[in-house]
Amino acid sequence: MIYFDNAATSFPKPKEVIEAVNNCLTENFANPGRSGHWPALRASRAVYGAREKIAEFFCVDDPLRIIFTSGTTESLNLAIKGSLKKGDHVITSSMEHNSVLRPISRLKEEGVEATIIECSVDGFADVSDFEGAIKANTKMVVCTHASNVTGTIMPVRDIGGMCRKHGILFTVDAAQSAGFSDIDAEDMNIDLLAVPGHKGIMGIQGTGILYIGSRADVVQLTEGGTGSNSEQIVQPTVLPDRYESGTLNLPGIVSFGAGISVINDIGLDRIREHKQNLTSLFLEGVKNIKGAVVYGHDRPAAPVVSVNLDNIGSSEFAYKLDEEFGICTRAGLHCAPLAHRTIGTTDKATVRFSFGYHNTKEEIAKSLDAIYKISAGRY
Fold this sequence. Notes:
Number of strands: 13
Distance between the termini: 17 Å
Strand order of the largest sheet: 2-8-7-6-5-3-4
């Protein structure tokens, strides 16, 4: 099997991540923050240790501002729904995932105004596009760091500076950039940062974080047991307890921290260089295949490439890659319908190739040979 679906979830997981999860299930098994016995205390220390690693990785001064969630979708829902109310205005782009678009669409029914910036055909929006849409009641800009369809990298640092200048909250969806791009939440003026633990970070599914900066006052969406202030029937206001009701996903959280450690040991620059080399090799080859169309990648991009063949539909293309050649990709609209409208693929969708650190040049060569054979009908 050749696995090129790392934009959905990374594979294989590093042995350090697997060992950390196994340790949770066999030794470090207790419910963190709920009891005073030594297994619970050890679990609590494991959670805080992961929180510290994550805060340091994203250049956050206060680890307590790292809120654990079930993934980027929950993080974005908390950031958007917890910050906007009737009469507020939010700006976003046409390259966003439905984890941004659907919460905003829901809030429009409650009186929140929204402007969607139309991006260029390669999926890019300049800072001036966002600044030109600002109104007197603009409360927030929400922007993906890297598109999950084209890999296009948005000018997050510039947008963050613009938002800070105008006193607007800046929310960043880092689902495809974390573990690939350098992200300094403070320096980039990011107020709310949503990150999954199972993609570029290489942890397991079902975990993510939302960084909540000091300028953001986010209303919690869930209330319940936190292990703190249990004598009160109202939600505590201290961080992170305000946002972390219920039993934490200890194996997922520990895997997130273990993934960060793996990245630090390898070096983010080395990981990025390897993924960029694979992407460049793939692009060079696929663009020379007759009938192949590549979308985006006219600018710096994450290791995500959308491709179509002019003689076959995207679903059949992905099916043949899987069945005939053992190559795992993803066909469809990738939960980003406006992005496909932007690049002109709403009707046909695309086949997405997304590369991870464990992929090789040999796998790229095999995939190019497979694409050529499918395009030429030689399979």
